[in-house]
Amino acid sequence: MNHTPTFSLPLPMVDLAGQYAKIQPELDAALLAAVRKGAYIQGPEVKAFAAELSDYVGGAQVIPCANGTDALQLALMALDLKPGDEVITATFTYVATAEVIALLGLTPVLVDVRPDTYSLDLDQVRAALSPKTKAVVPVHLYGQAADMEDLLELAAENSLAVVEDCAQAIGARYTFSDGRKAQVGTLGTIGCTSFFPSKNLGCMGDGGAVYTKDAALAERIRMMANHGQKVKYRHDVIGCNSRLDTLQAAILRVKLPHLDSYIHARQEAAERYDKGLKDLPGLQIPVRNPSSSHVFHQYTLQVKNGQRDALKSYLEEKGIPSMIYYPWPLHEQPAFASDRYPKGAFPVAEQLCQEVLSLPMHTELTQEIQDYIIHTIQSFYHS
Predict the structure, then answer these.
(1) HSE-up of 81 (CA within 13 Å, CB side)?
(2) d(C-alpha 359, C-alpha 318), whole Å
(3) 178-212 burial, b for 16+ CB within 10 Å, e for fewer?
(4) Helix (H) or strand (E) segment spanning residue 126
(5) pTM, whole model, 2 decimals?
(6) pLDDT tens digit sequence for 5-52
(7) How many CB atoms lie within 10 A of CB 19?
(8) CA–CA separation, 36 vs 58, rounded Å?
(9) Nearest Cα residue to 143 out of 322, 267, 19, 283
């Protein structure tokens, strides 16, 4: 870079303040209107947001809740599984995916992922099936769909529920072999998402939602999120208290119409990263699943030859943040340690945890900022 940069260092990993500044009048007005109504719990904005998100995802019923982890828990609660029932999921994911399985007295069964798209390895899913298997939880990691068509066929053959963890992939679209397209979260039995502030559609606190096309399941999930009641003070099932805050719903109503433009900005940023980094030896840029669009919640490299930590330190010295999602697979976490999963059980996930590195990715990335990041990475490899 031959000129004085217009940005300051260190760079942010996510620029939420910059995003807010661009839509500040809309957000401020929406928040003020919600405050003036005084309906802070289950206010009209919550119901309106649920209807608008339902339209966005193609008509599935949407049940807002307190956070993405609650969304996963509510989904599994609604399936009426019994203690000891097995639920298959990936070992390469955030802990919440398996945490809720264990919290409900179910048995999380971990499997490895594919080395290219990091989605569930379907051969391992098949091998893990048992008479106790009742559900499978695919994770749409980093912003693109898992290999859903084959998984849905496998689930149908074995009478399994499919609970999609799409916390990182809201807005991604999956294309089936017959040309049919659908939003992630609406492909399986139930979909779960998060509105954590850094997500592609993020609020200013915690928030989440559950999707389903099954009207009976939707009704059950609504009840469970509201202490198991359909009629006030009559509790038909054991539930919990998981509500999307009215102020957060007001924020999300403003941001939802911008979601596609946010996704487009991330995709353009990913293309710039690709162009600048694709030819560097020992560096693997993200592989796209041809059946899915990619909304790039994260732009995640694989750094080969044991250089990941050195590159991370080098970037930090230059004022560039990076993150490791994730440093340990679930089977190596103390909470999930088991003789069933010795070290080496899932070599792909274990290798990924040594190699993945996510670069800054957000809606406010400029060409100038990315040029600096790309040039810095190139310098690391050419030094």
Answers:
(1) 29
(2) 13
(3) eeeebbbbbbbbbbbbbbbbebbbbbbebbbbbbb
(4) helix 122-128
(5) 0.96
(6) 889 999 999 999 999 999 999 999 999 999 999 999 999 999 999 999
(7) 20
(8) 32
(9) 267
d(Cα 221, Cα 239) in Å, to the nearest integer? Answer: 9
Residue 88, H or E segment: strand 86-90
Query: Which residues pair with residue 194 across a beta bridge?
Result: 208
Residues 6 or more apart in contact with residue 35 via CB below 8 angstroms: 247
Q: Which residue, 246, 241, 247, is CA-closest to 223?
A: 241
pLDDT, tens digit, 9 for 90 and up, residues 69-82: 999 999 999 999 99
Q: Would you state the torsion angle of the CA atoms of residues 8, 265, 272, 283, taken in this order, to the nearest 10 degrees?
A: 90
The angle at the Cα of 371, spanning 10 to 273, to the nearest 5 degrees, equals 105
* CA distances for 161 relative to 244, 248, 311, angstroms: 25, 30, 41
- Decide: 143 and 298 in contact? Cβ < 8 Å: yes
Sorted by where each starts, the structural domains of the chain and their CATH numbers stand as 21-257 (3.40.640.10), 258-382 (3.90.1150.10)
Would you state the structure tokens that stand for residue 195, as one six-digit string?
Answer: 């509105």
